[in-house]
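Researcher: Next entry in the queue.
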Amino acid sequence: MTALLAGALALVLLGCGENHAAPDDSGFQQAVRQGQSGSEVTVDGTLLQDPFQSGTHEHLLVRAAGGTRLEVDHNTGLATWVPAHGGDSVVVHGQLYIDSPSQIGVHCTHAKTSSGCPAPGWIEYRGQYYE
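Model: Structure for this entry, 131 residues:
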């Protein structure tokens, strides 16, 4: 009985584990080149400056590993503020948007989903997930 209980507990704990994708910088760069706005992406990069608040969003300006500059629109009404600073490394998972060749970003970086953000997203900073 104890072994059965331990096995069931292990399955429950595995089911509760986070499923965070690894960065795919080449996939991100390809989605940008092909204009695939709306694609789910995971990219790592460096903050170009301290994040700033604009309405209900924290904005993070990031230079991706491949050199692309992007803005991350992190909804602080649905997710916790990321306490990062300029020069810090982050990994971002969310939905790509391309407003113009010079206006590229990622939004939907929160676990709560909606019709506009059908897949959960997150920002990883220093081993912690902000979602």
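Model: The chain has a mean pLDDT of 87.
Researcher: Noted, moving on.
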